[in-house]
Amino acid sequence: MDYVETIGPFLNKDGRRFWFDFYRVIPVVQVWLQGASNPFLLLPLEINNRLNIIGPTRYKIPKGSVWINADLFASASPDNLYCGLTVKDGDINFTAPLSITADNKLIVPVGMEASVTLALEHKRITDESPDDNGIDAKQASIKLPRTFSFSINHTGKAITAVDSKWNLYGQAINFSFDNTKPMRWVPELNRIAIPYKTDVTELEIAQCNSPVCTISGKAPVADAAWVLSATAININAPLEADGIGAMAVGVVEGLEVSWLGLKDTNLFEKGIAQLKNAMVMLMPGRINIATLFASAPTGKQRYNLWQEPAVDGVEMPVQYIDLFYTKQFFFFYDSLQKKAQKQYLHRQIVLPV
């Protein structure tokens, strides 16, 4: 989520610096299924102030943020998490008149159905890194789904999403909604995955220009999805949503990665790590690649630390740490157009004796 304002730094008594980020809280109406433990939808509404005793069957959704309970997509997700979407407009329709309660709730009774249609607002990234860090994210392009709709009642739900496309690492891919597969919860990434199909069978890295982390190879596409972040929020005062998610492809094996400092066992040649069962995601201004099954059996990195003063004119050796990679480790990579590149890894540390 983007913050509205930052103040600081402030110094505490230890001399440490602190900054405070401020986020915009939005007023919402909660939409519930009668008897449910959580609302399935939080949204702003345009309300006609004219007296309407029985209530309308349709409400207009203005530009703003909509929060959808993750359980609506996948029952395996924690029921206190919500997926946020920024919308241009939309509407919510009921099969019978329904009024908003005094505490800003729409409670859908048994036998009534709610239908929601949203025109989604694509997040725009205009900031750029001052160097070539994040250049692959800058050169990538994506068109996320522009509309999203669903209907829900006490006996079931139905969801529809439109096509999407991207151009990533020099390869164009078209995505189409796949209503034959179930939506699923991805706990490793804290995301909901809405199933899609691709018009290609392999993800191919045709070009990678990052000076920090080089992705290469091609890998069979196992699945594809529109993925939405899920988070715990205050349902009475949620924050503004941050975009409309990302497109993702899951690949089996064939992708390789190398980064600054990764060498072979002898510390001579450039090292390579293999990525298996990886998820590659693209959203405006950001590339993310993650897997629990990376391997670099011959990979090694050395970090020089310090050198003790010479003793009787004899130069002391440089102290260092050698990092070795386990047979299988977690790899998480972010390339951000407006900031930098980050990667997280699990490694073993060996200290010289």
Characterization of the model:
It is a single chain. The protein is an all-beta fold and 353 residues long. It has one domain (5-350). It is 1% helix and 51% strand. It has one helix spanning 135-139, and strands at 5-11, 17-22, 29-33, 41-43, 58-61, 64-69, 81-94, 105-108, 114-120, 141-143, 147-153, 156-161, 164-168, 171-177, 184-186, 191-198, 202-204, 213-229, 231-232, 246-251, 255-259, 273-276, 278-283, 286-295, 300-307, 318-324, 329-336, 341-345, 348-350. The strands form four sheets. Strands 3, 4, 5, 6, 7, 8, 9, 11, 12 and 19 form a ten-stranded mixed β-sheet that branches. Strands 18-20-23-24-22-21 form a six-stranded antiparallel β-barrel. The protein starts with a strand and ends with a strand. The model is unreliable at 49-53 (pLDDT under 50).
Shape call: globular
The ordered string of helix (H) and strand (E) elements is EEEEEEEEEHEEEEEEEEEEEEEEEEEEEE
Helix content: under 10%
What is the first-to-last residue Cα distance? 47 Å
Structural class: mainly beta
Main sheet overview: 10 strands, mixed
Q: Which ranges are low-confidence, i.e. pLDDT below 50, for 5 or more consecutive residues? A: 49-53
Supply Rg. Answer: 25 Å
Strand content: over 45%
**What is the domain tally?**
1
The averaged pLDDT comes out at 88
Total of DSSP H or I helical runs spanning 4+ residues: 1
Number of strands: 29
Which terms would index this structure?
353 residues, single chain, ten-stranded mixed sheet, six-stranded antiparallel β-barrel, mainly beta
